[in-house]
Amino acid sequence: MVCDDDQGILDVLQMLLESEGFTVFTEINSTNLIKQIHIHKPDLLLLDLWMPLLSGDQVLKAIRNTGEIKDLSVIVLSASVDGHDIASDAGANDFVAKPFDLDVIVSKIEKLLV
């Protein structure tokens, strides 16, 4: 599952990850994300850090405090200089800086799904 407030990034990630054989669900509105996780039960979440309404770190903290989804693997994506530290503090499994290299994302996804 991918959550980002930029439709262009959602489209690119969905197309590229599907071409790698992954099933991809997308969500543009971070306030809908936890509900969508319960519906789709993804193996992993790619989560943008800076989004309106609920930021990625707020969503991630909520995921980590929700029993049945607290162990979901989450890779945070961000162009923020201190994004890695924020992601780590919120409980992310990994971090990818924007602009990202798809090969790096695929390799980190594969590492977490093994």
TrEMBL record:
Keywords of the record: Phosphoprotein, Two-component regulatory system
Looking at the record, the residues that make up the Response regulatory domain are 1-113
Cited SMART domains: REC (SM00448)
Task: List where the protein spans the membrane.
Answer: none
A GO BP entry is: phosphorelay signal transduction system
**Is the keyword Phosphoprotein in the record?**
yes
List residues, modification 4-aspartylphosphate.
48
Domain of life according to the entry: Bacteria
Which Pfam families does the entry mention?
Answer: Response_reg
User: Key word Phosphoprotein present in the record?
Assistant: yes
Which PANTHER family does this chain map to?
Answer: PROTEIN PILG (PTHR44591:SF14), STRESS RESPONSE REGULATOR PROTEIN 1 (PTHR44591)
| Protein name as it appears in the record | Two-component system, OmpR family, response regulator MtrA
Q: Which organism is it from?
A: Chryseobacterium taeanense
Print the organism lineage. Bacteria, Pseudomonadati, Bacteroidota, Flavobacteriia, Flavobacteriales
